[in-house]
Design a protein that fits this description.
Oligomer: single chain
Distance between the termini: 16 Å
Number of strands: 0
Largest sheet: none
Structural class: mainly alpha
Shape: globular
Helix content: over 70%
Number of helices: 20
Length: 539
Amino acid sequence: MSFGRAIALIGGWTMLSRLLGFARDVAIAALAGAGPVADAFFIALKLPNLFRRLFAEGAFASAFVPLFARARREGGDAEAAAFAREAQGALLAVLAPFVVAGIAAMAWIVPLVAPGLASKPPETLSFAIEFSRIAFPYLLFISLASLYAGILNSLDRYGHAAASQVLFNLSLIGALFALTPFLPNAGYALSWGLCLAGVAQWLWLLVACRQAGVALPLAFPRLTARVRRLLTLALPAAVGAGVQQINLVLEIVWASLLPTGAISVLYYADRINQLPLGVVGVAIGTALLPRLARLIRDDQAAGAMHSQNRAVEFGLLFSLPAAVALAVVAWPVIATLFLRGQFTAEDARRTAEALTVFALGLPAFILTKTLAPGFFAREDTATPLKIAVFCISLNIALNLLFITLPERGLMPRLEHVGVALASSVAGWFNAVLMWLVLRRRGHFHVDARLAARGPRIALAAALMGATLWAAMAWTPLGGAFDAGGAGRWLALLILCGGGGAAFVAFGAALGVIRPVEIRGLLRRDRTLPPDPRDTTPLE
């Protein structure tokens, strides 16, 4: 499967999942608002997802995929399947006792992650502990599912893994409406739905692996040489690839110290920001890692350099306009999606502020997804770890700064905006440092095509942003979101459609959007491309 087609397939399923996620979040906002129940559930949601990114998607995906590719090349499919079973045993040996211990210690874990809950209404802390205990087994099932997804992606079977995301949102939506009437509040229903979502995704991908010829029966864990190598690579990758998730957990720590609702406000804003990150960044990173691993193993340095340049170009082509659009139309998006039921106008205002600042870091988060495979494909997980530690430290320092300076009267109180700003700044440092290290090692240099198109993509995005701002300032569209009613949806549709059309028009005029290139990229897979300095269209 071609690189472009793989991105399109993963991105398409992710887009469907994100749209269902919006429907889920709209329902949560209407039923739980931004109060104690919502704050408690979002803590319960983030805890297993943090460890999922660290144990499974961060550590195992980045360490397992290159080793799986090596086993397949040296010993064929049978040897690769044997290594997959060894990896599954190691993952279970680590995660099963961890999940049991986590459930037992949840009364200590939640106050540690969200220390500010001690000063909130007591039911918030109580709900957070109970919801987290119900939801935490999700970690075990989704980690196994992530391992299976790495296997399928390495076999160029991207569809099942990408489609599994849809099951997650369907499970939560179904639980929210089916179980809420029979439970004390919506938080309990969502927590049980989260646990069931993990089971559904695990079974779905287990069957898909079997159909792909990789049987994964349970086996007693063995510390083989390959497993030792996997664990050696996975340990630093757990931090290196999970820097963004660690920053998100730090957001819970800081937000818990802010007024009630800050956790929910940051969650809703981040969910909107995650749409382009999930559709573009995750799709590129998922497709790029096994591709780079194969090219590097086959000593095709030119092909690897070309693929990474095109991945960065793809990332910029989607992330820059998305970031500009979200920053400009943050209030219309939040008001249209969430302003109803228990979600008040003040909640919407605070969420829009956070979304604007999160959007500033969106290109950095997507660039990180495209640059990280340059390390992981070479079995280097130590360097991203060092960069991650620095960025986490920077995130902590900035949040402390934003808290202490207002207390001394040296700057206004940023509250939830400060939390989002610290995350965005740390994200940019992460992306820039990765790029500098790869360039210094000769593993990535900006080719002539990317150097020529990058600034023009930025210009097209800026012109689109100006168009959106003018439409809101000088037409009735801006007032539609303050007036309320069904007109919001029509106005938002016009803004989104008009903004997309504006970017395509400006991009085409500046020569960065060419239909012939898109068709060619989706149709063909060039392992050995032309000279990377060539700026002619990619047929």
